[in-house]
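User: I'm putting together a small comparison set for a docking exercise, and I want a reference complex before I start. The sequence is below, and the ligand is zinc ion. Could you produce the 3D structure with the ligand included, as structure tokens?
Assistant: Of course. I'll restate your input first, then give the structure tokens for the complex.
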Amino acid sequence: MTYIDVILPLPLKVNFTYVVDDDMAQKVKRGCRVVVPLGNKKHYTGIVDRIHHEVPVGYEVKYAYGLLEEQPAVLPQQLQLWEWIADYYMCAKGDVYNAAVPAGLKLEFKPKVETHVRLTNGYRSEETLQRTLDSLKRAVKQQDLLLSYLQLSAFFEGAPCEVSKQDLLAHHNTSVAVFEALVKRGVFETYPYVISRLLEKEQQVSGLKPLNVYQQRALCQIKQCFEKHSVCLLYGVTSSGKTEIYTHLIEETIRQGKQVLYLVPEIALTTQITERLKKVFGIQIGIYHSKFSDPERVEIWNKQLSDNPYLIILGARSSVFLPYQHLGLVIVDEEHESSYKQQDPAPRYHARNTALMLASMYGAKTLLGTATPSVESWYNATNAGKYGLVELKERYQEIQLPAILPVDIKELHRKKMMVGHFSPVLKEKMEEALARNEQIILFQNRRGFAPMVECHDCGWVPHCVHCDVSLTYHKHTNQLVCHYCGYTTAVPHTCPECGSEDLRDRGFGTEKVEDEIREMFPQARVARMDLDTTRSKTAYEKMIRDFEKRRTDILIGTQMVSKGLDFDHVHLVGILNADTMLNYPDFRSYERAYQLMAQVAGRAGRKGERGLVVLQTGHVDYPIIKNVMNNDFEAMVHGQLAERQVCHFPPFYRLVYIYIKHRQQRLTESMTAQMTAQLIKVFGEERVNGPMQPAVARVHSLHIGMIMLTIESTVSFTQARKLLLQVEQLMHQDTRFKSLQVYYDVDPV
Ligand code: ADP
Ligand code: ZN
Ligand code: ZN
């Protein structure tokens, strides 16, 4: 008997085993899609992980229904990567399968089909056609339609090309009845035609841009570095031309017949970089991210399995899951970005670190690029000597980095000189920029406070009924929304606590800033880029294109505007309030604040003159503000490394957050407390911190308990994870705790 172990799209700890019939046993391969029965639900599409002859004991083995196709849909390297992710990030393989494979592949995939039209066999000679046209003299509309077909299909110019029924009817605005008449006469017949959703317009390619001397030197150093290390960190200031260097490396890699994965942290970034790369590589580049429709993603997946795959994939984090046949180079652009980490649901993987693993499986090289390295990568490239390091300190055309002007808003608030959230200096610089017809970027970090509604009399603030968070006020729809669970409710007319009618909006989101600008500069064309305005794929693209084409004067945004965008006419950047970044209670807040400010500043003055950044803060004297002003990344990172060593944080220690979830608060608290005690027994008091207060203690009506585990990076992390899973097992043996959900966040960001 032949058995298969199958990965199912469910959060299961183990693979399920099925028996296969002789016919299937002949055909089945690892990585094939297979339909299998499970429980009461009729069937699932799983992936074959292992084929063997070991008779399972203890339960009745069911037959697999059948294979969806004989060629594997998942390559062995992908299965190996799934295994690594499930193991390292402590989740189920089914979770990885769910995240990795587009939904369309979990069912039978239907290609996109159009109805096409052709002449029937007997009507394909010029002679018969002429006779037919003559015979249609009294049916002028049919005659016209036949002539239209001959024209559209270029019939007389040799082999006729494809004509869709829809195009044919539209061509002359003909009715379906006329068309049907010609079908009845036996002149036309229809047939289904499979069309690709991947539009591949041949494009004029223009070759590589020559590198300047600094860029050439960096490229040379990167290649030297790859002789010794498999990973290289390119630390190049904003607008030094890192993207141009990547382009040269990509060209060399595909010339050797190898594939390239180019990862960007934000879908918004694919738009600009796609255009730059398409100019050089034309149709050899495929784009992949979650805003693509599922059928499009399935087609890209299948193309990557075919013998004509894209040589270059540009994408956001999920593109690490695509099939690669001969990967030679991985580029992780803006490697410091925390959006590379998936938060929810599992797998909570870090795409940069996963990409490093992927590359190593293929013996490929990885280039990490950024103007503001993460503390971890910096440490790996310097103290630890794990990566090579290449620096590029000159901006392209040697334009200076922007001047940074700090503005003390605490003082200005006291003197009542602020106009809304704008200092007089910022307002003045904006007026000047607009008068010179320059564009402006304003940055407002949303993470600090979300805009809320508050009762001016008693201080009541509306909260979500399912989660422990206040609701966010959306002015355009006049609604209150929970950003965790999506719960939506109307803004009440009176305060439910005290009955007052004086409900005001408080807080400080991008929407508020937009309103203030419209009031101050009614002539200016303003666009706002944040999670709410960029839900669709086209919304991002349009906003960026409008700004590029100078159809917008002022772009306001959250962290999205800080990430690697390249605009030519931005001279002024305003950081509205740096303090919202500094007050965040997280060991990474300084690092992140520095990165955000340096990156958003880097959008200013990329072409022509030196740019200007107005940095509003209540803490002008903080060292971090000084670091940003002096563009002193190294001072920041040395300070942070010293602190993290003392306080037991990465990169000296690895963190795992353990979450416990249940409807009942008492049960959640009691399991969290007992698990903490058990963990202390196993790992020692030094390494366990709990129970901790999670940022939000209740989501979707589930209570959350949290424990932090801290493991020195010098000890075996594999062993630590094994012990941790044993503790979980032990907890779940207690009947009271059986139904509590436990999950992990490894290397949280
Ligand atoms: P970074 O990625 O380091 O921020 P970019 O690669 O976006 O920098 O380069 C900044 C700008 O300078 C871009 O508009 C880019 O086209 C231009 N640029 C950089 N290097 C060159 C070069 N060698 N030739 C022509 N233009 C360049
Ligand atoms: Zn009130
Ligand atoms: Zn909620």
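The longest strand covers residues 702-712. The chain has a mean pLDDT of 90.
User: Thanks, that's exactly what I needed.
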